[in-house]
Input
Amino acid sequence: MSFSSKEISHEFSKNKIGLVGIAILGTLFVLSAIAVVTIPIESFKEWNDPAGWLTFPKSALPAWVNYFLSEKMPEHIILQNPQVLSQNVGEIFLTTHIFAVDYNYDKFPSDFIYEYTAKYSGSPLLQIWVVRPDGKELKLISTSLPQSKIETSYHGFIFSTDNSMIKNLRKNHDNLMFPIESLLAQDIVFSKTDVNKVLNGYYSFKVSLYNVKSKPSLELSKFILGGKVYGLMGTDELRRNLTVGLLWGTPLALFIGITVAIGSVVIGLIYGVFAGYKGKKTDESLMRFNDVIYAMPALPLLIILAVTIGNSIFLIVGFLVLFGWVGIAKVSRSMALQIKTLQYVEASKMMGQKDSKIIFKHILPQLLPYAFASIAISVPAAITTEAGLSFLGLGDPTFPTWGQILHDANTYGAAARGLWWWILPPGIMIAVTGLAFVFIGHAMDVIVNPRLKR
Amino acid sequence: MSFKIFILKRAVTMFGVLMATLLLTIALVGSNMDAILKQSVALEIRQQVTDNKHLVASFKNPQDLDAFVENQIKQRIDALGLDKPWYYPPRLGLSMYKILTLDFGHAKFLTSDTGSSDVKDIVLEKMPRTILLFTTATLIISLIGIFLGALSGSKINSKLDKITSTFAVISSSFPVWWIGMLMIFVFAFVYQIFPARATPLIPVTEPGYLGALLYHMTLPLITLVLIGFGSWAYLVRNFIVGIMQEDFVVAKRAAGISEKKIIYTHALKNAAPPIVTVLALSLSGSLGGAIITEAVFDWPGMGRLYYEAITVLDLPVIIGETYVLTAFFLVSIFLADILYGYFDPRVRKG
Output
């Protein structure tokens, strides 16, 4: 029953499935490292803060779909360096920012947003006009900024969903040869005049800030054309970048899976070996308790625990360990029953060694290969159970796990609305992570139980 | 030890588990529940007093009225036994007894389709639907699994065997609910064959309800079968492979009995006990998973009820459901135990 580490690594290197598992696991660790290095910790704490994601597109497909589609989907365009003009006539000062863009896509943008910080005193007027490739000039919005007697800086957004903008645009129905009553702002601005299709070419958005007496300025000025594709993995309904969520899910899933597995195996091993070694009444009562936990329905109780005690990620790890150790305790007890009859154990008992020393020095080391195999085998269950809890909305809200991404997807009906990029990647990641450990566990099982070798 | 004592011992353990689960549930939600009950008592009394104009008029100043109301509330709380904490033994005993006799009280928010707020009515209304979906799925899974398992077990290392094993490993690594989302995407969005939500739109009282329910059941059923039969086939295959190496099979083979006959009559017969046991266990396992599966498909059974109860924190429903789910779970484990003990004497002797 004993193995040297050299033997194990030699046996393992002959096992193809095990090597595949190791390769996948290695990749996952690399992904985790990339996540930790490239994405600052603060940014995933803001995962559930909608304000942080305003400048991202809504429900955008992954950018690479453009390679497979005949119609080119618009990418997310952020215009940051406008042409700045300022003039004054008497007491009236005017600052103009002009954003030019060559729009060459087959679909309308998903929306557009103007983000600005204006520095002024008084009550300036903000106007946005667009000059289209066909020379037509449309007024988008005309709004005044909040009154202020002293010099102030005001940060604001103008969305294409703004009611007055839509009203302004719908006034153009005479110039367009199709009904525009139900169209959104971007579908009118970027449309050809004869049919409601995209008019390609140079658009320039002109933002003008008028003020009386003092010269206003735009400190921050960004014009965002919301894309229909974004990044490697797209974005969700709440404009969150799914690449960030998926990347951060990797270290979290590994942490949850591995911690729960190690915790359960260590507790189960010590509990089982202790029961088996002690025998008699101790064994009987410990195993009855084990039976009780074993027969409890885990999921309902996990749910109640998460609802009543709390759902921080560490608590959930604890709850999962609470139900995870029982099976391992059963097996290690029966193994301990065998080992304790071996002569060297009896001999050391005869020599008067303490029970704890016999358990930790003579019995537990024999069970180590089995322990490693069970750690690998228990990881997938821990990951899927946590994902299930998160899917029910009981996960830790401060950490974006894969289960939570799927929970949000389900809440927004992603499946029935066809938002496949929101559903497929998290599930595949859960399964691939599970499979890696199943493969490794299987390979180790073959080494630990030579009978399976056939 | 005789078989009767074995059964008795298991039954006692199971009852102990049921009690332990209940106690744990009450311990976890008890103090919350008391706070909610006290609040609703206070609200009710205040409402009663302010509705009674004569009573209000008989008080000279608002302090007296407040004192009267406080006193009334205290009396009611004492009468209901809420002045003692949930772990006060007589109270605890009473609440355990009530739950044992299926008296779960009234739900705070949820109601049954017919409008009753009695938790028992709500649970009993949802139970047949959950049983319908999951027993049907388990039956289909086991039929396909046994057939496929026997087939691949008879041809070890054949293409079919390898495909079955691979499929088993891969299918069991995907969460059922995720496959459910994919199925909704494929069959409700891409090809609009089945509805995305499994709750029929017509009311329960309409004559066509059962038909609509069955139609809405198709998608969850297909999902459960798809994700379940692989591991079943793999299990049966392993049983068969083990049995095919036993001496009695070798003897039959030597006697010239055809391989097919050996597998389908002798080997399967010998593999029956563990198969039946696993059947009972997998039924109980799928019931536990029903909470998430039903939430995905919006299937109007006990699982979705549990999900709804959690989202609005309807504690009486949560307690009632936990009890019923645990009872189901334990009954099937108990059945599995008995069947195993019945088929395999080594268990009851050990």
Q: What stands out?
A: Chain B is about 80% helix and 0% strand. The mean pLDDT of chain B is 81.
